[in-house]
Design brief:
Elements (H helix, E strand, L loop, with lengths): L6 H17 L2 E5 L6 H16 L3 E6 L16 E3 L11 E5 L17 E5 L10 E4 L6 H11 L6 H14 L10 H12 L4 H9 L4 H12 L2 E3 L4 E6 L1 H7 L21 E7 L4 E8 L5 H7 L3 E3 L2 E7 L2 H21 L5
Parallel strand pairs: 1-2, 1-4, 2-3, 4-5, 5-6, 8-9
Antiparallel strand pairs: 7-8, 9-10, 10-12, 11-12
Bound molecules: guanosine-5'-monophosphate and manganese (II) ion.
Guanosine-5'-monophosphate binds next to β11 and β12.
Length: 338
């Protein structure tokens, strides 16, 4: 069920989705809680596309976007709610970037006509139409194909959001899910008006001073394990308070340890006051952190994955670290030459 769709199957499902979008009038777009660049970019690129077709579109997300995305076009259209607003009638719900419906954090979606567009392995195929393509570097790549199938021209706003989705979900072109198609799509977005230098600055160089302080504190407390191949970061609310930061300020920090040559994987433990431990992981090359996440009820991609567990941290940490060390050992055996 969760196999990546073949080329012909992709054509078929893409045509089916195109037809449903053309035949229906009003749409609810949603994506996963704690949205990232791919969920924001995929939703807004599709929203602008549906606008161009004269459709009614509303976007509902469980959480607000990180602050540095707020001045991207159309961000003010996203309604933040934990359930579908009572006044919202839609002919179809388009769920992007979610391996199962609960990832949205938005209640009231069950029983509606759902179109599921996703690239996360293990997608549960919960929609009336399910387009799942694990080979896509970003959900934004799939949305791009859909836009082309709908024959809507790439406006600068649409192109900006497709590029945002790809830039962020490839870890700024670091992850191992990048294909020629990724660059072909980016080329077309640049032709449509995207400025890659400006995008990189907006996405990666928009930190507050508080965030810089937080980065310093997190790296200062970083632990190195497995002869320096695994880096462990810890965060709790007191560190945020000390630096005048919110949880949103932690975005991207997890990638920093990977800039050290020896470090093959990073795990970031975020402990919240309610006792939950949110675990984020990143890795290089063939070190597969998705498999690690799967073992703890989470998911993601080979080089970026996560899950949430009940604490306390000291109790859950050893098993997670042990599993990661094993993943590093296995991944290093097939590491490609640079
Ligand atoms: P992040 O560490 O940025 O929160 O997540 C990295 C990747 O793992 C993203 O693709 C995200 O969708 C996925 N991911 C993170 N947490 C979970 C989770 O609890 N369940 C699943 N299925 N995927 C997750
Ligand atoms: Mn994604």
């Amino acid at each position: 069920m969760t196999q990546t769709t073949t080329a012909t199957a992709t054509d078929t499902i893409l045509r089916q989705i195109r037809d449903e979008l053309l035949n229906r009038r009003s749409f609810l777009l949603t994506s996963h809680a704690r949205p990232d660049g791919d969920s924001i970019g995929s939703q807004l690129a599709l929203a602008f596309t549906l606008d161009a077709l004269g459709k009614q579109v509303r976007i509902v997300n469980a959480d607000a976007a990180p602050e540095h995305y707020l001045d991207f076009p159309g961000l003010d259209r996203i309604e933040i709610a934990s359930s579908v607003p009572a006044d919202l009638a839609a002919d179809a719900v388009i769920v992007m970037e979610c391996s199962d419906l609960s990832r949205t954090g938005v209640a009231g979606l069950d029983g509606r006509y759902i179109i599921n567009i996703d690239h996360h392995a293990g997608n549960r195929m919960y929609g009336a139409l399910n387009w799942f393509d694990e080979s896509a570097a970003a959900c934004g790549e799939m949305v791009f194909d859909l836009i082309r199938a709908l024959r809507v021209p790439l406006s600068p706003d649409i192109a900006t959001h497709i590029y945002l989705a790809i830039l962020t979900d490839t870890g700024s072109f670091h992850h191992s899910n990048i294909t020629p198609r990724t660059f072909d799509i980016c080329r077309q977005t640049v032709e449509a008006g995207v400025n890659p230098a400006a995008m990189a600055r907006r996405v990666f160089d928009s930190n507050s001073f508080g965030k810089l302080k937080l980065i310093g504190a997190l790296l200062d407390a970083m632990e190195l394990i497995d002869q320096g191949r695994l880096a462990v970061l810890y965060l709790d609310d007191s560190m945020l308070e000390l630096c005048g930061c919110t949880h949103n300020d932690t975005e991207g920090v997890i990638n920093l340890p990977l800039t050290a040559r020896e470090i093959q994987a990073v795990v970031f433990f975020k402990v919240s006051a309610d006792g939950l431990v949110r675990v984020s992981m990143r890795s290089k090359y063939d070190v597969d952190v998705r498999l690690v996440a799967n073992g703890f009820g989470g998911g993601g991609h080979k080089n970026a994955a996560g899950f949430t567990v009940n604490g306390p941290l000291e109790q859950v940490r050893p098993a997670i670290v042990e599993r990661l060390v094993r993943a590093i050992g296995e991944g290093l055996q097939t590491r490609p030459e640079p």
